[in-house]
Write a structure and sequence with these properties.
Layout lengths: L7 E5 L3 E2 L5 E2 L2 E8 L9 E5 L26 E2 L4 E2 L4 E5 L31 H14 L7 E5 L1 H12 L6 E5 L7 H15 L17 H15 L2 H7 L25 H16 L2 H13 L10 H4 L6 E7 L7 H13 L4 E6 L13 H19 L1
Parallel strand pairs: 5-8, 5-9, 6-7, 9-10, 10-11, 11-12
Antiparallel strand pairs: 1-4, 2-3, 4-8
Helix pairs in contact: 1-2, 3-4, 3-7, 4-6
Amino acid sequence: MRLIATPQTMSFQAPLRLQSGAVLRDYQLAFETYGTLNADRSNAVLICHALNASHHVAGVYEGQARSEGWWDNMVGPGKPVDTDRFFVVGINNLGSCFGSTGPMHVNPDTGRIYGADFPVVTVEDWVNAQARLLDALGIETLAAVMGGSLGGMQALSWTLQYPERVRHAAVIASAPNLTAENIAFNEVARRAIVTDPDFHGGRFYEHGVVPKRGLRIARMIGHITYLSDDVMNEKFGRTLREAVAGSATGYKYSTQEVEFQIESYLRYQGDKFSDYFDANTYLLITRALDYFDPAAAFDGDLVRALAPARARFLLVSFTTDWRFSPARSREIVRALVANQRDVSYAEIDAPHGHDAFLLDDARYHAVVRAWFERIARGAQA
């Protein structure tokens, strides 16, 4: 039986002070829950989402075909994060374009759409907002917080901002901060958006247009970094599209034609992304990625930065993930071990690059399942 998801929203009037010093008031958060909260409220698991995902973590929407949650292979009845045993919460981050207050919403102070005026948000701001929603749900302590990529950064930040509220944390395919190369990729993607003539300084809503060209390029750049060289060669290689494969060489010798399958695939991904994602949201979320660096306040000393954490940790990395390489996960592991924290680490030999954390891999899922089994037994003890 499929898990049926029901989207919800919660409104907040109390002002939320952001790290930038700006204050957000009269905002709402979109969220979904799966499973049942037990009597002592000890089985709650928060799932934090990555860049282009949302609160729709698992299940399907009733009557909607192909509406599976982005981590539906991981979360659900009988799955590694078993909703027959855990009460799972997914929250859409502030600044997103999937229901929580963001650039597409009206600024209560001006009566106009926020657009480019939406305040800069950080991972720490998201965690504070998530904590408020959990307060409203009556959840004081999380059995676990879990996330991949940018979601893993949020999971790590939870253990530092609210160490007394987190018993376990799963940080998947993530890092303690972005490398200069990662920041560079984000900046190129942002420049593609802001230099699109339809961007209008972030006020494109008022002009009735969408900077689709910039969004397409941004997505194409991002998608390249999510895949490994092996996967790209295996799926596409140098294969030509059928329409251009008939001649002796197959090439049209054109600077503008789409000739290779990989070109067609990237354009398809870009077109699809530009139809549903907001340009200002893309700028906000990639900046939040760039800014995350808990060790910055400790002169770069990650050991000191992670000292407040009290949770038991699971870290998972993937050998072909060059965007968030295993070396970055091992930095976190070493810092936690130096603080004498309980840490489990799995490095999965998988060919899929960064996207591996979203895919079916028996070894990866077995690790997560076993870890949550131990959590469940502890909750029942």
